[in-house]
Every structure is written in C-alpha cells, then in structure tokens.
C-alpha cells in the first residue's frame, strides 16, 4: 500500500454508530423528545391512566395516545406476564416509567450507556432512582446487569453499527433475559432475523435455541419477539417478513448487509471447501 494509502487507511472512520453517545442528549434526544414526541404522544403516565384489557391483551389509555411502539411494548409485557422486565438503552426513561405504573407488581429496570440520558430519565421520572443504571450492552457480558424475564429495546440496536457490536448486543440481551427478548427497532437498519439465526447457529446464544416471532401492537407497531420456548405466534424466518409493506431504504438495507457481512460466527473447522 502507498504511504498516502496507509495514512488514509489509519485515519479513516471505518464504521460507526449513528450518534456520538457522549453528547447525544444535548445534540439530539432532548430536543426530539420535547419537539416530536411530547407534542404528539403521552410520555408520562400517572395512576389510572393506563389499564390492561386482560381478555384482548390491549392496553387502554386515558387521554393522549401512547406512541405505537410504546403501546406494543406494554401490550407484550401484559400478554407475556413476566415477573421482571429490563429495558436496554432506556434513554429518558418514559417506557420503563409507563411499565412500572401499569404493572406495579413487575420488577422494572433499565440501563443506558449515557449518563446524561439517565440524568434526564431521573429528572422526568424521579421514581426511577435506584432502578436504572449505566450499562453498555456492547461490552462483554456483566454479571452486574439486572437479569429479567423479558429484556427489550426500542430504537437502540438499530443505531449500533460499530464493528460487530450489534451482534454482541443481541447475544448479551438474550443472555440477560430468562425467557424473552423484544426488539422494537427499525427493521431496515439491521438484518435482525438473519443475524439472530446466525448467532444461534454459531452457538452465540445462551439459550441454545431461540424461537423468533413477529408481534404487533393494537395501534400497528411491529416488533421481533425472541423466545426461549415455542409460542403460539406467527413465526419469523426472514427479514423480508418484518419489512413487508415498508418502502425499502436502499441506503439502510445496503448498510445492514455490510453489517451482517462482518460477522464470523461459531468455530469453523472446514474453512476451505
Ligand atoms: C434513540 S435513543 C432511544 C432511547 C429510548 N429507548 C427511547 O425509546 O426513547 C437510543 C438510546 O440508546 C442508548 N445506547 C446507545 N448505545 C448503547 C449501548 N451500547 N448500550 C446501552 N445503551 C445504548 C443511547 O444512549 C440512547 O439513550
């Protein structure tokens, strides 16, 4: 390689997450929360604002609607009835706070790599103090992370693109969960189904086998449910199923393929065929 080529090779940004997480609250999140989310949806719930219709699994909301993704998360919790839930990348804490209002008997925790995100969460929901903490889901697994029956994320793993970090995150979420992982993510940003299957086949999932399902909330949001045991739900075998009906983003899908292409899974003895 030429000297110029070598210099360029060393200084280039190879791949990166979508945001600089150290300044993310001020750069983007706080403004988005105030401007786009709070003006359209209920972000804080008090006692009696949310209720679960046990027969249908639907969450009823008094007053302003929940964002469809949040509606889905709460409905999945209501239908699966875990004893504990943990949110990875809980940000401003709204979803964990809704969950603890609606399901006071379920133990709720949240983790985020951003200290300023957690500061914001406590400012918005002081009752979360002691329930949330710093967690980088792309680090090697930590026994200090709270275990939970259900571990979920919303709009977190979709933004992780550094090296093979999103594979690490998915594998860690499965290990942190006793029974279920719920991904409420933009399904064009990663080949979530393909990547989970590759992790399973390569022996990277603590459960050994994982069952993949598509779940849908009563207001239209869709998510990927990973379950340790088989469930009576529509099975997912491809990302195309999750992407059905969405206008494809060529840029995102190309990046997803590049991300998936970085994974070397398992232990391959026959590498030359
Ligand atoms: C788009 S925000 C979503 C926040 C929240 N889930 C919500 O729906 O409002 C992405 C969040 O993921 C967090 N995050 C990014 N990388 C992470 C990592 N490696 N481990 C844990 N959290 C992470 C960010 O700090 C940020 O709070």
UniProtKB/TrEMBL annotation:
Superkingdom, natural source: Bacteria
Coiled coil: none
Keyword Transferase: yes
Example GO molecular function: methyltransferase activity
Keyword Glycosyltransferase among UniProt keywords: no
Alphabetic keyword roster: Methyltransferase, Transferase
Record-annotated Methyltransferase type domain positions: 87-169
Protein name: Class I SAM-dependent methyltransferase
């Amino acid at each position: 390689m030429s000297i110029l080529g070598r210099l360029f090779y060393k200084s280039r940004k190879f791949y990166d997450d979508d945001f600089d997480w150290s300044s993310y609250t001020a750069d983007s999140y706080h403004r988005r929360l105030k401007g786009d989310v709070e003006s359209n949806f209920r972000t804080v719930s008090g006692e009696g604002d949310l209720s679960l219709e046990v027969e249908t699994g639907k969450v009823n909301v008094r007053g302003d609607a929940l964002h469809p993704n949040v509606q889905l998360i709460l409905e999945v919790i209501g239908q699966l009835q875990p004893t504990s839930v943990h949110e990875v990348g809980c940000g401003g804490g709204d979803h964990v706070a809704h969950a603890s209002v609606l399901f006071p008997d379920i133990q709720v925790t949240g983790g985020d790599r951003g200290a300023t995100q957690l500061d914001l969460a406590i400012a918005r929901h002081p009752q979360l103090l002691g329930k949330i903490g710093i967690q980088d889901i792309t680090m090697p697994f930590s026994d200090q992370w709270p275990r939970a029956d259900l571990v979920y994320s919303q709009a977190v793993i979709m933004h992780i693109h550094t090296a093979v970090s999103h594979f690490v995150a998915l594998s860690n979420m499965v290990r942190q969960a006793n029974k279920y992982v719920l991904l409420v993510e933009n399904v064009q940003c990663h080949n979530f189904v393909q990547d989970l299957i590759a992790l399973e086949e390569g022996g990277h999932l603590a459960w050994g086998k994982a069952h993949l399902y598509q779940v849908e909330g009563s207001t239209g949001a869709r998510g990927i449910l990973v379950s340790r045991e088989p469930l009576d739900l529509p099975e997912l075998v491809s990302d195309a199923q999750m992407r059905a009906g969405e206008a494809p983003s060529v840029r995102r899908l190309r990046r997803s393929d590049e991300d998936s292409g970085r994974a070397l899974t398992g232990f391959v003895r026959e590498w030359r065929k």
